[in-house]
Write a structure and sequence with these properties.
- This protein is an alpha+beta fold.
- The chain has a domain at about 10-70.
- The protein has three helices and four strands.
- It has helices at about 45-50, 55-65, 80-85, and strands at about 10-15, 20-25, 30-35, 35-40.
- Strand 3 and strand 4 form a beta hairpin.
- The N and C termini lie far apart (about 40 Å).
- Bound molecules: zinc ion (ZN).
- The site of zinc ion has 8 residues, from loops.
- Zinc ion (ZN) binds near residues 15, 17, 20 and 40.
Length: about 90
Amino acid sequence: MNFDASNMDIEYVQCAVCEKEIRGGKWFARIRHGDWMVALCCPLCTEVFEKSPQAYVRRIQTLEMLHDPKGPFKDGTPRLPHAINDNAGP
Ligand SMILES: [Zn+2]
C-alpha cells in the first residue's frame, strides 16, 4: 500500500483512482493535491481524478490511516463497541 508518489525514484506506487500497481516510475501522470503527490496510471484515471480530487485524496488518507501501525487499528483488531458483547450471551 503506497499512494505517495512524491519521491521521483519510487519503486512502487498505486494509482490514486483504480489502485493498480505502478512500478519503476511508469505512471501516466503525477498530480499534487494538498499534501499529497499522487500517481495516475492512464489518461482515463487522470481525468476521473481531476473531476473530484478531494474524494480520492480523502479515500487515500483513510486507507493510509487504517494501515498505519500507529493508527487506530493497531494489532489489526478493530475495537468493537462493548454493547455487542453484552447481548451475545446465552
Ligand atoms: Zn488507474
